Amino acid sequence: xxxxxxxxxxxxxxxxxxxxxxxxxxxxxxxxxxxxxxxxxxxxxxxxxxxxxxxxxxxxxxxxxxxxxxxxxxxxxxxxxxxxxxxxxxxxxxxxxxxxxxxxxxxxxxxxxxxxxxxxxxxxxxxxxxxxxxxxxxxxxxxxxxxxxxxxxxxxxxxxxxxxxxxxxxxxxxxxxxxxxxxxxxxxxxxxxxxxxxxxxxxxxxxxxxxxxxxxxxxxxxxxxxxxxxxxxxxxxxxxxxxxxxxxxxxxxxxxxxxxxxxxxxxxxxxxxxxxxxxxxxxxxxxxxxxxxxxxxxxxxxxxxxxxxxxxxxxxxxxxxxxxxxxxxxxxxxxxxxxxxxxxxxxxxxxxxxxxxxxxxxxxxxxxxxxxxxxxxxxxxxxxxxxxxxxxxxxxxxxxxxxxxxxxxxxxxxxxxxxxxxxxxxxxxxxxxxxxxxxxxxxxxxxxxxxxxxxxxxxxxxxxxxxxxxxxxxxxxxxxxxxxxxxxxxxxxxxxxxxxxxxxxxxxxxxxxxxxxxxxxxxxxxxxxxxxxxxxxxxxxxxxxxxxxxxxxxxxxxxxxxxxxxx
Length: 567
Hints:
25 helices, mainly alpha
């Protein structure tokens, strides 16, 4: 019993604030205002998602993907409100990890922290790989062509080469380039040596900037965000003159399944607003500015995403958008080579800002976990001159840079979303805990309260009735599946309905606030759209994390040393 209770030992808000200010040499520079936070948020959100993965999402779902952006933004708003309440209650670095420590206890805090490490690391791998594609494209515009084997990962090139050998296979320009790179690559013992050198180098340079300091990072981010928003507005305004309404028909060519197939890509585009919360200790007035910054970021970015999706799918047919640089591609396709060149050059700088913010966030997660004794002490070491988590920043550079050198982007996009959904759900659930325990009274910002006592259950009944009435095709599909097939392909959907039913019962008993519940359900629903292979990898990642926790953090955490158990 004692061991079980100690797994869920919690930290009070006062204790977390005290720990954050009592660690020797841990003083981070407090210089960020609401404008800086909004800039960092936009830097993270308007990154590889809008400059790269938006093309794949549009290819799968057609123009209707613009509605998916709205739906995903709504889910993020519910989550952002929950993050904002926690940030105003616990204004320290650590993001969802710290919030879980308050609400659910140490074991859940570790799981969330470990998930956030995965989220930020693989997010930056995607951004670095996307940056590399735009960078090499920009260099070609100046007549500089890097050897193909230095810009393409081995797996992508091998797949393209195999496709080249297939009679009658249709290949894109990029696939032909990758296949040629595979043929020309140097070999050792029959193994083709290939790596994405630009992705590794940019990670190294950004890590150096983040190491030097938050002030320099802030200045660089602000400059790049201004340029980034300028590029996006240029695409929207200039592209509007080349929109052909017939390209929007059919609006959802592959139906709802095609639209939802872009969930990972679209959700990846929004990942980043939560990274604002990792800089809470460097914020001048986090209780006031954090909530404002998160909401401002989501509103601005959603409007930009919807408009740019409609412009892209209006300028060319959606079937042509399966490219790594869709913004430049649509202008080149319409004969506007100059515009395509401007966008390629600007995009390199714009994507760099997203890389900067993610690389800024991850070391601060590790730093906070180290403060609590769950990771080795060196991770919480603060550089005496630069006032940054120096060792954690260096490790982050290796963790991101090495995989970016050798792996493909598609794999990382889906994997990023899995860990993020998980963290978002626990943050929304944490707000319900704060409300029930009365801790919300300490919050300077609170999620607007809408009594869900009856609404959660009513909406559940309406949803079930809607499926029974209009979802007969879905019911027929489920009846054709065996038990093992249901477990493999529909387990998350089953969990979704069980959770909704449970929340309806608990909401009736405890007068749950509707908005955090809506955040839990929308994030959980979006999770059901991700592939089972991503979940398998995520589970493996969690198992590795639990091994580390039980072999090190469980006994060495500050709460364990103080003999504290669950509150």
